[in-house]
Amino acid sequence: MSTTIPHWLEKQYELKGGQIALEDPEGVSVTFKDLRNKSRSIASSMLNDGIRSGDHIAFLAENDVDLPAFLHAISYVGAVAVLLNTRLSPEEITFQLNDAQVSCLFAGSTLWEKAVEADKGADRNIEIHCLESYHESFDHQDLKEVISLDDVYTMMYTSGTTGSPKAVMHTYGNHWHSAIASGLNLGIHAHDKWLLCLPMFHVGGFSILMKSVIYGMPVHLVNKFDAEVVNRQVYEAEVTHISAVSIMLQKMIDQLGSDDYPSHFRCMLLGGGPVPEQLLRQATDRNIPVYQTYGMTETASQISTLSPKDASRKIGSAGKALMSADLKVDAAGRGEVGEIMVKGPMVTDGYFNRPPLTEEYFRTGDLGYEDEEGFLYVVDRANDMIISGGENVYPAEIEKILSEMKEIAEVGVTGEENPEWGEIPAAFVVVKEGKKLDLASLQEFCRERLAKYKVPKRLYYVREIPRNASNKILRRKLFSALQKERDEYEN
Asked: Per the database record, which ranges form the AMP-dependent synthetase/ligase domain (predicted)?
């Protein structure tokens, strides 16, 4: 039997109706009462427009104070929110609309043309609404007053080692347990305010909205990350928490100069892959308490986070598994590197329209080790995934696009270390005889088909692509193969 709880926004309306739920740097503020009333009005309009419980409703929108009301409206209807990455190309969005069996799409005005273009390739009739001009109804009928923790609430796309995007299904329970576990680790204070500068279509950004409605905590919403804006809001808006990735923290520190963060700021939650120790020490010097965290879309955000009491003595660690979660490394013992495996009520039950997950532990595909005290250190990825500025980039997806170029005979893609982004995509190409190819032409071809962060930033010419006995590309050997060819040429 499914566990139900009172609708969390109804509960905050009852307990903290007059308190701030959302605000932005322009001075706009929304109380929990305002948010509840707007969400219910939007939900009523959705019902009047034929949206029903279980329908898959997609959102393609930038961060905006209106977007949370739509996402909460979905929970009043009982539909499922499919969150689309705004940086994807129309072609990539079309695939996700079809794969997720979307029946309705809400697009922000700045992304309207992209939404219309993506819809052209849809294999079903998808109704498109402009988020900013959507009508509201005050005929509040048949709205859900309770939440079933077993029901699917959101779907967010991620990719496996094959590069095929998959929709991770999150239940209300996944989001609930993620927020509760984080609160038990970091603590919940009366004056907490979380700055949201990550995209809401990412699990890291969406999880902050969940914390807000579950904790009754205000969120300071920034449309797009800007180091100067974020630093200023820490002071002026008395922000206490920020979720970020390494490149964002580095830019905040550079912009801060020699200044320190104020004493009310108590948490920089840092994810997106291993963090350089030098960056962590720079943050400490400026009174920025960094808590490194480990998680992924499949775990509804963080599943392991360094606790405040251990932050200074375990620099570089992602801590231990949060309350109600379990984590182990598939290795011979402590200190040995192996694949990180997790389980817990925040871990997804599986992917939409894919075979169910059957193993007790979810295999993350990431490599790490536990020290003698059981603290996790993430060291690498078991698969070939590239993490560039906190975004996951999958080589097979880029290779598939590049293989369509008439100049290319063979191609392999891997990550190249970069001081600003952590890694950048690098393409290794065998050019067809009689053809010519330069980086500018390659990038122009990719920009029409891929999100900007997936476009290769380096181009290397090779005579052959290293492969194994099964003819699979050995991406980790691309640079060594290049060096071997250069050595042979020089000799």
From this structure: 10-352
